[in-house]
Amino acid sequence: MTDTPLYGFSDNSFQAAGGTEGIRKLVDDFYQEMDTLPEAVIIRKMHKTDLTESRDKLTLFLSGWMGGPNNYREKYGNINIPRSHAHLPIGENERDAWLLCMERAIAKQHYTPAFSVYLLEQLRIPAERIFLTRGKPLGW
Fold first, then answer.
1. 78 within 8 A of 135, measured Cβ to Cβ
2. DSSP 7-51
3. Partner of 46 at 20 to 30 A CA spacing, among 38, 55, 91, 107?
4. What's the predicted TM-score (pTM) here?
């Protein structure tokens, strides 16, 4: 029998990420990567100069997405990831830059190796959905 939590159920992922504070650190590191990686210039230009709201939105979204408090909905309303990004020209390079920033940010956390792999694999899903739905009707 293993003591490894079953990520994706209950609040196991939220807890493995360190709760709200841990997710906030992940998000801060993510945007630090976006500000410094040459590969991320293309996605950094899609954001406002002041990242305060972007940081808050991503922190709240990830908290709920990982099974923690669903404060995103309370503050910003419902979210449909592809629809929320439909106005942005997201291609393979943008998707890959976003994932690279997240991969580097995850590597800076004190997560178990199993959770790090799991989290990046799970984050690939919405990143891929955003990429695949560009240019398609929003009801797709």
1. no
2. TTSTTHHHHHTTHHHHHHHHHHHHHHHHHH-GGGHHHHTTS-S--
3. 107
4. 0.89
**How far apart are the C-alpha atoms of 60 and 74, rounded to whole Å?**
10
Q: What is the DSSP string of 109-120?
A: S---HHHHHHHH
Residue type at 103 in one-letter notation: E
Which is nearest to 125 in space by CA: 107, 98, 106, 104?
98
Residue 124's nearest CA partner among 106, 137, 111 is 106
pLDDT tens across 40-83, in order? 999 999 999 999 999 999 999 999 999 999 999 999 998 888 88
Helix or strand or coil: residue 83?
helix
